[in-house]
Specification:
Distance between the termini: 77 Å
Strand content: 35-45%
CATH superfamily: Protein of unknown function DUF192
CATH architecture: Sandwich
Radius of gyration: 19 Å
CATH class: Mainly Beta
Number of helices: 3
Number of domains: 1
Order of helices and strands: HEEHEEEEEEHE
Low-confidence stretches: 1-31
Number of strands: 9
Mean pLDDT: 83
CATH topology: Jelly Rolls
């Protein structure tokens, strides 16, 4: 009668790598760039977030599509080279999101609460903006975010 074979070190390392990949894809694609600090000042105080930056056409197009989870203190900042009106949609986006439209000086110009997941209906900025911050749905209301509040991040020039 033969004994069951024990896995060797290579097999264990391979299994661990597969488990890591499976866990990473369960919560969303891996980050392309490190997270950056962003602070939102409201009447309730300063609120710190870690954000991914979508500064290229490819990262702006992809956004948070296909993600199933995002920690509550995270977000994505879409940076634009020129100020102008923009429109977003929620195609292939499973997480309800708050969209915060922001002027070049960091001032919040419009807030859309809890955009409907998977919707292809355009969500317009309502005027020119320099950036859009996407947060988990309900976070803007939770921190008391209002039009006119200020967002601090190196992209904005007060």
């Amino acid at each position: 009668m033969s004994q069951p074979s024990r896995p060797n070190g290579v097999a264990i390392a391979f299994a661990a790598a597969l488990a890591f990949v499976a866990a990473a894809t369960a919560v969303g694609p891996a980050l392309a760039d490190p997270l950056q600090a962003l602070t939102i000042g409201t009447q309730t105080g300063d609120h710190a977030f870690s954000v991914e930056i979508a500064a290229s056409p490819a990262t702006r197009e992809r956004g948070l599509m296909d993600r199933r989870f995002m920690p509550m203190d995270r977000g994505m900042l879409f940076e634009f080279d020129r100020d102008g009106p923009v429109a977003f949609w929620m195609k292939n986006t499973y997480i309800p999101l708050d969209m915060v439209f922001i002027a070049r000086n960091g001032q919040v110009t419009r807030i859309v609460d809890r955009a409907e997941p998977l919707s292809e209906t355009p969500i317009p900025s309502g005027g020119p903006c320099a950036a859009v911050l996407e947060l988990n749905g309900g976070v803007a209301a939770e921190i008391g975010l209002r039009t006119g509040d200020m967002v601090r991040h190196p992209f904005f020039k007060p």
